[in-house]
Amino acid sequence: MLLLNNVLQFSKLFLWTQTRQYSNRNILKLSERGLYQDIFPNTAAFEITRLLNRSPQCVYAGFDPTANSLHVGNLLVIINLLHWQRGGHNVIALLGGATGYIGDPSGRSTDRIALEPEVIQENISGIKKNLEVVFENHQKYIWPKNEDVLKPLRIVNNETWYRDINSIKFVSDIGRNFRMGTMLLKQSVQTRINSQVGMSFTEFAYQIFQSYDWLHLLKEYDCRFQIGGSDQMGNISAGHELISRTAKKDVYGLTLPLVTTEEGDKFGKSAGNAIWLNPEKTSPFSLYQYFVRTKDTDVERLLKLFTFYSLGEIKDIMFKHKQHPEQRYPQTCLAEQLTTLVHGEEGLAKALKATDALYNKDVNALVDLSSVELEQMFQGAPVVTLLLSPGITILELGMKAKCFPTESDAMRIIQAGGFYINHQRMKKIDEIVTESAHILPNLISLLRVGKRNYYIVKWQT
């Protein structure tokens, strides 16, 4: 009987292995790509490998509603969840509808500003949409068509289980499993306690709630794995301790590295501004350009972290780069796959059109851009709305759009060939502006003075 059971178990394992040829179900193999920084407990690699190879497991990552969109800095966690999904595992994204009221102190030097309920709900909706779109784009455009259908992403909101919990009972049943000495030793707590601003009890208690989240998911979905950024190790270890005391089951945490540029800047920041996943906050063009501008010294590492190319394919990409570095081939591969993942093929097409419009001076590409896309594309460019009146000249247009400080400057620069409308050089100051010659079908004119000074005119007719 024992032998028969072993044969049956082996058969199930063999059949599951055959259906998962494209991705490795043992996600610890992702360490070869630099995707993991730490495992908790740190002696659990063998047990984790055994679990992953034995049957599909369940993993979760949490997202607190601090903004109405996720940003590029969240992508590594999302992509890690996608790797789990590709390996045949069950994936949960936890939205912090309740913990958003508290605020995670990890990585913070001051208390988070308390958010109003309506703001939290708006942020929850935005983040939920981000996640749904990315997972849908992955399956539609990146996951091989001949592979099995992926197990669907499960999105849960921790507000649904906290709303009916009695606070006294929660402190009594859950709080008694935590030890103050251990809680105080967490790095996120130590950093804040030793700072000038200190730490509120609200944020100090955050680790209790994140721990209970894991316990709840373990009971509901047998979720034995939690992943998070490198700053989440304290919260993950607290959850492990709570589960060890209450559920008495083995659970495991994995942290991802903090990704920085060669200069040490936090990944996902551009001139102090986040690169958002919501196309209304950051256009597909801006996201595409962010990755296309990746430095040669960073690009191979980012291909391993943020794309689904195999290590062999990445090696080939880098070999081509060495042959023709001026073509920026790996940067293009990185930008195209990530833009497709975040915005789909339609978003990538828009990004490529905008790139043509800006760098290849393609007038036809400008026609397909909306005023919002143009404003995002030419960030910082002044925008004016003008009424198209008969007889307005090129000189008058330049002055009304405030392209020049004085009329004499305008005349001199225009006549010298330094003024452009929709990438076309204008030299005649008395030429009349017409819809057919100077205004795009989307009722926009893109003005340029010199090489880099852009102005956007929205026309009212």
From TrEMBL:
Q: Show the GO MF annotations.
A: ATP binding; RNA binding; tyrosine-tRNA ligase activity
What are the alphabetically sorted keywords of the record?
Aminoacyl-tRNA synthetase, ATP-binding, Ligase, Mitochondrion, Nucleotide-binding, Protein biosynthesis, RNA-binding, Transit peptide
Record-level GO cellular component terms? cytosol; mitochondrial matrix
Q: Which reaction does it catalyse?
A: tRNA(Tyr) + L-tyrosine + ATP = L-tyrosyl-tRNA(Tyr) + AMP + diphosphate + H(+)
The record's section on PROSITE patterns has: AA_TRNA_LIGASE_I (PS00178)
Q: Where in the cell is it found?
A: Mitochondrion matrix
Family matches, as SUPFAM superfamilies? Alpha-L RNA-binding motif (SSF55174), Nucleotidylyl transferase (SSF52374)
Q: Which InterPro entries match?
A: aa-tRNA-synth_I_CS, aa-tRNA-synth_Ic, Rossmann-like_a/b/a_fold, S4_RNA-bd_sf, SYY-like_C, Tyr-tRNA-ligase, Tyr-tRNA-ligase_bac-type, Tyr-tRNA-ligase_bac_1
Q: Which Gene3D superfamilies match?
A: HUPs, RNA-binding S4 domain, Tyrosyl-Transfer RNA Synthetase
Q: Which GO terms describe its biological process?
A: tyrosyl-tRNA aminoacylation
Q: Which residue range or ranges hold the Tyrosine--tRNA ligase SYY-like C-terminal domain? A: 373-457
EC number(s) for this protein?
6.1.1.1
Keyword Ligase annotated? yes
In terms of one coarse class, where is the protein primarily found? mitochondrion
Keyword Calcium included in the entry's annotation:
no
Oligomer and partners? Homodimer.
Family per similarity comment: Belongs to the class-I aminoacyl-tRNA synthetase family.
Q: What does this protein do?
A: Catalyzes the attachment of tyrosine to tRNA(Tyr) in a two-step reaction: tyrosine is first activated by ATP to form Tyr-AMP and then transferred to the acceptor end of tRNA(Tyr).
* Name of the protein described by the UniProt record: Tyrosine--tRNA ligase
Q: Which gene encodes it?
A: LOC113511936
